[in-house]
């Protein structure tokens, strides 16, 4: 009889969990695999919506919770959180003893988990490596996670090449496509009436979905940028605004404060959520004119809905973009120009012909097949792959 392989998934944010959902479900339903779940970070925070409860509502059993977020989102607070995370994950991994740790992305919470797993000699599978976000310290975390990981699942061939460039063996790097596309294809999205009812908010002639996260490598620009964006949004006519809040990075609380202040002043045209969840978030994309801010969803998922994206600042700089993405800096004039381009006839006409560079499809199934069958023998001793 084959040994059941224990796959331990770590998740620390609502967005990350949304991307992992279908893979977690497939692992849970596979007789040859045993799903273990560790939740951490924003999932365990009242301030960020206690989103671990959604994981449980979805039918998953959480094996362990690692508390690591401090009340401060300063550089010192984040640094101390990373240290607390390593301590917490070390204890949990010693107890769970997974055969494979599976993580996604580039967050500091995931960096803590992978650091502990490396010392514990646990093989690591990393999803969405090789990408670049030049305006955030996530860039360094992502590539560090890549170097500590043993199997790699990328979203494009360009990102696969970049992981190999980092010295990873070609036969352990798999381009499977973006997991967010699986969500679009698998979820039954809400009708307009059901969506409006679910958020208790009526849509207007024009609508925008807005998420703005801190640009963690740019000192003190986040406050300037969010204020500039809110000033431009205030000037838009017959436009309703759906905000989702920033994450727990440096200055995230400041951004959320500015958004809350704006929404309280303009409750007739704006609404804010700590978390919409994947169903409502993707459903919203059906009915908005654009995704605005600097969320990766504007680059990965939005093009599938043939809508525009206004991507502000450097947080996502370096990522592959569809032609539906309008990149601009955070100056008020540039944001205004981006909106003028968004609503121009020429730009609107080309949206119906947009090709999404991330729309490979089937990322969940491809990844599942690999983690179920790949040999784990000898994987801890990695050999650096030199490009000739």
Describe the structure.
- The chain is an alpha/beta fold and 388 residues long.
- The chain has two domains: 5-177 and 360-373, Glycogen Phosphorylase B (Rossmann fold, 3-Layer(aba) Sandwich), CATH 3.40.50; 191-351, 3-Layer(aba) Sandwich (Rossmann fold), CATH 3.40.50.
- The protein has helices spanning 14-29, 52-57, 75-96, 108-119, 138-148, 157-165, 179-186, 192-199, 222-235, 252-265, 277-285, 297-300, 332-342, 345-351, 363-373, and strands at residues 5-11, 33-40, 64-66, 100-104, 124-127, 151-154, 173-175, 206-211, 239-244, 270-273, 290-293, 308-312, 325-328.
- The strands form two sheets. The protein has a seven-stranded parallel sheet, with helices on both faces. The protein has a six-stranded parallel sheet with strand order 10-9-8-11-12-13.
- It is globular.
- The model has no long low-confidence stretch (mean pLDDT 93).
Beta-strand content bin: 15-25%
Distance between the termini: 43 Å
Helix and strand run:
EHEHEHEHEHEHEHHEHEHEHEHEEHHH
On the 0 to 100 scale, the average pLDDT is 93
Radius of gyration, in angstroms, nearest whole number:
20 Å
CATH class call of the largest domain: Alpha Beta
Keywords for this entry:
single chain; 388 residues; alpha/beta; Rossmann fold; 2 domains; 7-stranded parallel beta sheet; 6-stranded parallel beta sheet; 15 helices; globular
